[in-house]
Amino acid sequence: MQPVNLFDLATQQAKWLSVRQTTVASNVANINTPGYRALEVEPFENVLNGSRVALKSTNPNHLQFGATNASFAVGSTEDPAVLPSENTVKMEDELANAGEVRRSFELNTAIVKAFHRMLMNTSRG
C-alpha cells in the first residue's frame, strides 16, 4: 500500500513549523543583539502554491500523478521598525508567532490522529 498524500502534507507542514519555531527562537535569543534583523519563514500557503499537491495511486491501474515537492525559505522581515540599537525584533510579535506555531502543531497533530483513526477503522472492516 502506498502512503496517503495527507500524511506527506502533514509531514511537510511539521517540518515547516519546526523551521518557523527555530526562527522565532532565534529572534528571541537575539533580542538584545545590536543590528540584528528579525527573520521570518515564508508562509506555508506560499509553499503549497509553489508545489504540486497530487494524489498517489494505490493500484497500478490508476493514473500516475507526481508527488508533493515543497520547499521553504527564511528571510528578513519586510519593513521592520528599527530600534535605537538597530535591532528589528519585537518581543510581542515573537510571542504571538510562538503561540501561532504551537496552535498549528496541535492542529496538525489532531488532523493526523483523526485521519489515522479513520484509516484504522476502515482497514479493520
TrEMBL record:
<dbReference type="InterPro" id="IPR001444">
    <property type="entry name" value="Flag_bb_rod_N"/>
</dbReference>
<keyword id="KW-0969">Cilium</keyword>
<comment type="similarity">
    <text>Belongs to the flagella basal body rod proteins family.</text>
</comment>
<dbReference type="InterPro" id="IPR019776">
    <property type="entry name" value="Flagellar_basal_body_rod_CS"/>
</dbReference>
<dbReference type="GO" id="GO:0009425">
    <property type="term" value="C:bacterial-type flagellum basal body"/>
</dbReference>
<dbReference type="Pfam" id="PF00460">
    <property type="entry name" value="Flg_bb_rod"/>
</dbReference>
<keyword id="KW-0966">Cell projection</keyword>
<feature type="domain" description="Flagellar basal body rod protein N-terminal">
    <location>
        <begin position="18"/>
        <end position="37"/>
    </location>
</feature>
<protein>
    <submittedName>
        <fullName>Flagellar basal body rod protein FlgB</fullName>
    </submittedName>
</protein>
<keyword id="KW-0282">Flagellum</keyword>
